[in-house]
C-alpha cells in the first residue's frame, strides 16, 4: 500500500500533492505548532482562529492558508475517484452555482471546466503562489507584499468552492468513507477563520448557507 500511496502522490492526474511544509526553527513553524496544539486541545474553534496576542496578522493568515490548502487538498484527493469528467462535467455547487476558471495565463477569460479539471488547475495555482517567495516570504525580516491579503482572499474563496462542490455533489461518498466528522471539522475551522478576518465575501458563502450551522452563523 505504501507504493500505491507514493504512486498517488506523484501521479499528476490525482489531486494529491506533496504537503507544503513549514521549516523548523522559523516563526511560521512555531505559529503552526501553536495553532495545531490549540486544535488538538479541543478548544472552541471560534477561539482557535483568533490571532494570538503579539503575533503578526499576515503570518497567522499565511500559516492557515498553507494548512487549509494541505487539508482540503487531501480531502478532495481522497474522494477524487468519485469526481470524474462523467459525474461532474461542470464545476458546480448544485444547479444554481457554476464556477469558471480564470488564471491570467492559460485561461485569460472565465472558462467552463469539469470539476476534476478545475480542481487540478486550482491546486496547481495555489501551490505556485504559496511557493512563491515574493508572495509568501519565508525568510525572517522579508516583508509580505502589499497585496498579500488580497491574494489570500482569492485562494480562500476558491478553496471554499471545493467544500461547496464536495458537500453538494459528493456527500454520500463522504459518509460512505466514514469521513463526515473529519470533513465537517475542517469546514467549521475554515468557516470560522474566514469569518474572523472577513477574508471571503459573504455572497460566496451562500451555497452552504443551509448547512447545519447550529455551530455557525
UniProtKB/TrEMBL annotation:
<keyword id="KW-0479">Metal-binding</keyword>
<dbReference type="InterPro" id="IPR005301">
    <property type="entry name" value="MOB_kinase_act_fam"/>
</dbReference>
<dbReference type="GO" id="GO:0016301">
    <property type="term" value="F:kinase activity"/>
</dbReference>
<dbReference type="InterPro" id="IPR036703">
    <property type="entry name" value="MOB_kinase_act_sf"/>
</dbReference>
<feature type="binding site">
    <location>
        <position position="88"/>
    </location>
    <ligand>
        <name>Zn(2+)</name>
    </ligand>
</feature>
<feature type="binding site">
    <location>
        <position position="165"/>
    </location>
    <ligand>
        <name>Zn(2+)</name>
    </ligand>
</feature>
<protein>
    <submittedName>
        <fullName>MOB3C kinase</fullName>
    </submittedName>
</protein>
<keyword id="KW-0418">Kinase</keyword>
<dbReference type="Pfam" id="PF03637">
    <property type="entry name" value="Mob1_phocein"/>
</dbReference>
<feature type="binding site">
    <location>
        <position position="170"/>
    </location>
    <ligand>
        <name>Zn(2+)</name>
    </ligand>
</feature>
<keyword id="KW-0808">Transferase</keyword>
<keyword id="KW-0862">Zinc</keyword>
<feature type="binding site">
    <location>
        <position position="83"/>
    </location>
    <ligand>
        <name>Zn(2+)</name>
    </ligand>
</feature>
Amino acid at each position: 500500500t505504501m507504493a500505491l500511496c507514493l504512486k498517488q502522490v506523484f501521479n499528476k492526474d490525482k489531486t494529491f500533492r506533496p504537503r507544503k511544509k513549514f521549516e523548523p526553527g522559523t516563526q511560521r513553524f512555531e505559529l503552526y505548532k501553536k495553532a495545531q496544539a490549540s486544535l488538538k486541545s479541543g478548544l472552541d474553534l471560534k477561539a482557535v482562529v483568533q490571532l494570538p496576542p503579539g503575533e503578526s496578522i499576515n503570518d497567522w493568515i499565511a500559516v492557515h492558508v498553507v494548512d487549509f490548502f494541505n487539508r482540503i487538498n487531501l480531502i478532495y484527493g481522497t474522494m477524487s475517484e468519485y469526481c470524474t469528467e462523467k459525474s461532474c462535467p461542470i464545476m458546480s455547487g448544485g444547479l444554481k452555482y457554476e464556477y469558471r476558471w480564470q488564471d491570467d495565463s492559460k485561461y485569460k477569460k472565465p472558462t467552463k471546466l469539469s470539476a476534476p479539471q478545475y480542481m487540478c488547475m486550482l491546486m496547481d495555482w495555489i501551490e505556485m503562489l504559496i511557493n512563491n517567495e515574493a508572495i509568501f516570504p519565508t525568510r525572517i525580516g522579508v516583508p509580505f507584499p502589499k497585496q498579500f491579503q488580497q491574494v489570500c482572499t482569492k485562494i480562500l474563496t476558491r478553496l471554499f468552492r471545493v467544500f461547496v462542490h464536495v458537500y453538494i455533489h459528493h456527500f454520500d461518498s463522504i459518509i460512505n468513507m466514514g469521513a463526515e466528522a473529519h470533513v465537517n471539522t475542517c469546514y467549521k475551522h475554515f468557516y470560522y477563520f474566514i469569518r474572523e478576518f472577513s477574508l471571503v465575501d459573504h455572497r460566496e458563502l451562500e451555497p452552504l448557507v443551509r448547512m447545519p450551522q447550529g455551530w455557525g452563523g
